[in-house]
Q: What sequence folds into this?
């Protein structure tokens, strides 16, 4: 009997962990950190309901932290199998997991030094060395080629768009074919490829980040230009919290388009994120995984002033001149962006621009919902800057695009499981799948098991 259980990413948009059991063997698809709301983040510290040592293999659809960030903890707690991912995902995961481990160590050290944590001492969930040990367990496999997994299953990756290396996972096990969407990207994205259609499935596990929303139409380059130009006119700085992998590179592309058109000519652009800089370099290493020509890739990657060291980051904050600052993290949950928010959010001439999904409980969601102050490093920071949102720049498929991908299957699956979405988004997609396709769709609860 084949069994499916969501250990995370069920009823929430973070912490994706989906388990397949068959004849005493186990495969985990994605292994993400919970982010956002405190009650979700606390789940990272709870032991998994299964022993990590009992998992035979992990399949990683892409490297974003909410899909990969628990891997060092899984290995630390006893997982000793292989982690299967595309070549680009492995490279991106090296950046993200090392950064995550390093930042957790630094955050714990900072909290202990400043004394604002209620934990004495504050400890990281895992550290840099734990991340390095997890990376030793990776096995890279190509797109569009069926490979055997240790537990007897067959795996094939197809392009999902979204970010560099992102894939849908086609797993055949116990006579059943289960398709995991991972995170699906946009159709017609200028940088990333379209999600590749999948013809057959007995069961589908699909994300629902934007399951209840349609992205606004219009030219995202023009929308970005409008925000920057009005901010510059009042002498302000545009601060963009951006996911270091995917969103930062897409923003550079649109800014390059504006520069090509002779606009924003005198406005300096800073990419203040060592990880985003390294991720941008990976576009050169994995040219087959994106749409940019070698020449355009070189130009886009050379657009911004890169800031790797802390002193350079401080100089950006201290500069009174109008500029565009792209920095991580994308939901303002950590990283250098917090220092820029402390400096620029209190001044009404500046703009904080969001360009990706903001999960519940994050500073990004709070600001989009009108919060007039946010807590950073134990201090309450006033928010007087303009808050802008450009969902047209999102790397996530919207409801129509999720339905377009589902419509590519030749036959209805026995059941579609809707995961990786907040409750309203997941339920809206469930209703739409039933109405438009006539399929049997379910929103699983965390740790709810299903026999397939």
A:
């Amino acid at each position: 009997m084949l069994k499916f259980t969501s250990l995370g990413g069920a009823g929430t948009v973070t912490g994706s962990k989906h388990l397949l059991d068959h004849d005493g063997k186990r495969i985990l698809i994605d292994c993400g950190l919970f982010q956002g709301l405190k009650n979700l983040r606390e789940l990272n510290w709870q032991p998994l309901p299964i022993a990590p040592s009992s998992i035979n293999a992990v399949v990683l659809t892409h490297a974003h932290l909410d899909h990969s960030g628990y891997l060092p903890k899984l290995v630390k707690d006893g997982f000793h199998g292989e982690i299967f991912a595309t070549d680009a995902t492995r490279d991106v995961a090296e950046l993200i997991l090392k950064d995550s481990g390093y930042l957790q160590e630094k955050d714990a050290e900072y909290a202990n030094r400043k004394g604002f944590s209620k934990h004495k001492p504050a400890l990281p969930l895992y550290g840099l060395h734990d991340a390095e040990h997890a990376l030793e367990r990776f096995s890279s496999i190509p797109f569009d080629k069926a490979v055997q997994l240790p537990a007897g299953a067959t795996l094939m990756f197809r392009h999902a768009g979204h970010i560099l290396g992102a894939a849908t996972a086609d797993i055949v096990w116990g006579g059943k074919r289960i398709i995991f969407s991972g995170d699906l990207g946009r159709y017609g994205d200028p940088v990333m490829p379209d999600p590749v259609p999948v013809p057959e499935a007995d069961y589908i596990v699909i994300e629902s980040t934007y399951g209840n929303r349609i992205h606004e139409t219009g030219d995202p380059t023009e929308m970005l230009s409008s925000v920057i130009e009005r901010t510059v006119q009042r002498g302000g700085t545009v601060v963009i919290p951006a996911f270091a992998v995917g969103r930062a590179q897409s923003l550079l592309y649109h800014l390059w388009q504006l520069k090509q058109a002779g606009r924003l000519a005198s406005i300096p652009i800073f990419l203040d994120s060592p990880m985003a800089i390294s991720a941008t370099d990976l576009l050169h290493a994995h040219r087959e995984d994106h749409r940019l020509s070698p020449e355009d890739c070189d130009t886009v990657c050379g657009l911004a002033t890169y800031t790797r060291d802390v002193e350079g980051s401080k100089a950006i904050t201290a500069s009174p001149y109008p500029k565009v600052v792209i920095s991580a993290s994308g939901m303002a949950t950590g990283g250098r962006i917090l220092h820029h928010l402390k400096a620029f959010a209190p001044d009404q001439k500046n703009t904080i621009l969001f360009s990706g999904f903001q999960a519940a409980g994050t500073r990004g969601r709070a600001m989009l919902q009108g919060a007039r102050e946010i807590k950073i490093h134990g201090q309450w920071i006033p928010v007087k800057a303009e808050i802008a949102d450009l969902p047209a720049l999102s790397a996530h498929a919207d409801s129509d695009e999720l339905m377009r991908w589902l419509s590519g299957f030749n036959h209805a699956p026995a059941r579609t499981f809707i995961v990786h979405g907040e409750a309203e988004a997941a339920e809206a997609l469930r209703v739409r799948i039933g109405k438009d396709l006539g399929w049997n769709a379910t929103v699983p609860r965390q740790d709810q098991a299903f026999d397939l």
About this structure: DSSP finds 14 helices and 22 strands in the chain. The domain at 220-393 is CATH 3.40.50.10890 (Rossmann fold). The CA atoms of residues 11 and 395 lie 21 Å apart.
